[in-house]
Design goal:
The structure holds 2 protein chains of 2 kinds. By secondary structure, chain A is an all-alpha fold. Helix content of chain A is 85%, strand content 0%. Chain A has 2 domains: 41 residues; 214 residues, MetI-like (MetI-like fold, Orthogonal Bundle). Classes of the chains: A mainly alpha, B alpha/beta. The complex binds adenosine-5'-diphosphate and magnesium ion.
């Protein structure tokens, strides 16, 4: 009895501590926000009152919700394609080393061209539609996946590869049962980077070329000097990013054999 | 179900460094042969050449008349590596079964094998949760789980304490009585070599060569009382002198 009560108290303690961990940064952000408002001379559309931001969020909830779905699709599709492209290329590089010499310079070039240029070129070539936006997100996101997966696929202990050879395992078995599991901690680490980047880049592209999505709403809010709306969207994007990061982090830990030793 | 191994004029160089030179050995089917010698004399290299993990720079190996590669392709080889070759995410039992899945052969029931090796109660632990000695025994179980016809063992019990080492040796001695297999066994323990082997091959270093082959003139398997026999005492003394005096002096 007393043990169970102790457990429940422990669980409540954990909830309280989690709530505290979430609340503290939120409270300190709002505190800082008000401090800036009352000590600076900045105009209201540059740094609006948090109350007005929340009000704007409620007033524009239909618009924001609708545009959020557009952003979600772009970021989600870009994220998936980043993984397909990144993991696919890494697998190709490992099984056919020549391909790495052929493709890697192009991948590094793409990574180092400023995104403004990529967006402009793609918009000219493909228009300002869904495909263009997803392509930009993919080009921005695949590189960390590629580099990490490649590293992971090659992180196999050579003595394990010897074992597979002695047992006369096929190349496919070595790939699926050894190389891929070995690279999971590396792939997981890349997801946290690419997940957040997908959202940021999706919004940025929308801001630049699109007539839909949260990026477009920010653009419109700016034009109309509606600081509250811009901040409301920023709030939504931040919360979204945080949720995505947390989910990826949680799933990553469950998948990652290097982190969990639980039975 | 055991094969003879012929090692003919094997040499292996790494760049300018000659690791093995002119190694000639004929090992009979079902024979247990130990390799001893100073570290760096090429014992591991020789096992790896027999296992088709490495190519010799000269000479050839025949296993039952076939090339190592052919024998490997038939999944008839078992190599107990010096360092554990277990998969870091697999529980002990799953690691043993993994060998059987890949080879499509169940030589020994996996759980029985772990129990025989004193790992009862640890079957569901992952490598990170096992001690060095336990890991080496899992490694041993995983390496022989498909019941290979040629057993290549590279210091398989080096991380075990005296008692566990003896128990493992006794297990193999018993097992080989009912299932004769050819065994090439690398060890630093002279007692172990004399107790388990038909012959002990002493290597000298740089380059690694066969220095002497010592036959143990007593039938296998031998029980603990063999340690008190004249053959055991004289042979270990002779080997000890070779390794600690003659070979050391020649360096
Ligand atoms: N891959 C390699 N590259 C270069 N030298 C090696 C390699 N493998 C082994 N050697 C050298 O060959 C010699 C024999 O090594 P090894 O077979 O591991 O000896 P042992 O197992 O008897 O201690 C050593 O001098 C070692 O440094
Ligand atoms: Mg060695």
């Amino acid at each position: 009895m007393s043990e169970r009560r102790g457990k429940r108290a422990g669980a409540m303690g954990a909830v309280a501590s989690t709530a505290f961990k979430v609340l503290l940064p939120v409270l300190s952000i709002f505190g800082l926000w008000y401090l800036v408002i009352y000590t600076s001379e900045l105009p209201r559309f540059v740094i609006p009152d948090p109350k007005m931001v929340l009000l704007s969020l409620v007033e524009n909830r239909a618009l924001i919700a609708e545009q959020f779905m557009h952003t979600l699709k772009v970021a989600g599709a870009g994220f998936l394609l980043s993984n397909v492209l990144g993991i696919g290329l890494a697998m190709l590089f490992v099984s056919l080393p020549v391909s790495r010499n052929a493709i890697m310079p192009a991948a590094i070039t793409i990574r180092n061209v400023p995104y403004v240029i990529i967006v402009t070129v793609l918009a000219l070539a493909m228009g300002d539609g869904f495909a263009t936006k997803v392509t930009v997100v993919t080009l921005a996101g695949f590189f960390p996946v590629l580099v990490n997966t490649y590293r992971g696929l090659r992180a196999v202990d050579p003595i394990v590869l010897d074992r597979m050879r002695i047992l006369d395992a096929s190349l496919w078995e070595v790939f699926v049962k050894v190389r891929l599991p070995y690279s999971i901690p590396f792939i997981v680490a890349a997801q946290e980077i690419t997940g957040s980047a997908s959202i940021v880049i999706a919004i940025a592209v929308e801001w630049m070329i699109s007539r839909t999505g949260l990026g477009y709403v920010i653009n419109q809010g700016m034009m109309a000097y509606e600081g509250e709306l811009v901040y409301a969207v920023a709030l939504v994007a931040a919360v979204f990013s945080f949720v995505v990061y947390s989910v990826i982090h949680y799933l990553g830990q469950r998948l990652n054999w290097a982190e969990s030793n639980d039975p | 179900m055991s094969v003879p191994v012929v090692i003919r004029k094997i040499g292996r160089a790494y760049g300018a460094m000659q690791a093995l030179a002119d190694v000639d050995l004929e090992i009979g089917a079902g024979e247990f042969v130990s390799f001893v010698g100073p570290s760096g004399c090429g014992k591991t290299t020789l096992l790896r050449i027999v296992a088709d993990l490495e190519k010799p720079t000269s000479g050839e190996v025949k296993i039952g008349g076939a090339n190592p590669k052919e024998v490997r392709r038939q999944k008839k080889l078992g190599l107990v590596s010096q360092r554990p070759a277990v998969l870091p995410w697999k529980r002990a039992l799953d690691d043993v079964k993994f060998t059987q899945k890949i080879t499509q052969r169940v030589g020994y029931p996996a759980d029985q094998l772990l129990r025989d090796f004193g790992l009862e109660g640890h079957e569901r632990k992952k490598p990170g949760q096992l001690s060095g000695g336990m890991l080496q025994r899992v490694n041993c179980a995983s390496a022989i789980a498909h019941d290979p016809e040629l057993l290549l063992m590279d210091e398989p019990f080096s991380a075990l304490d005296e008692m566990k080492r003896e128990e493992m040796g006794e297990w193999f001695a018993r097992e080989l009585e009912t299932r004769p297999r050819t065994v090439l066994f690398v060890t630093h323990h002279i007692d172990e070599a004399v107790l388990l082997s038909d012959r002990v091959v002493v290597f000298s270093a740089s380059p690694g060569r066969v220095y002497e082959i010592v036959a143990i003139g007593a039938p296998r398997p031998r029980d603990r009382s063999f340690r008190e026999s004249r053959i055991f005492i004289e042979t270990t003394a002779r080997l000890r002198k070779m390794l600690f005096q003659d070979l050391e002096a020649g360096r």
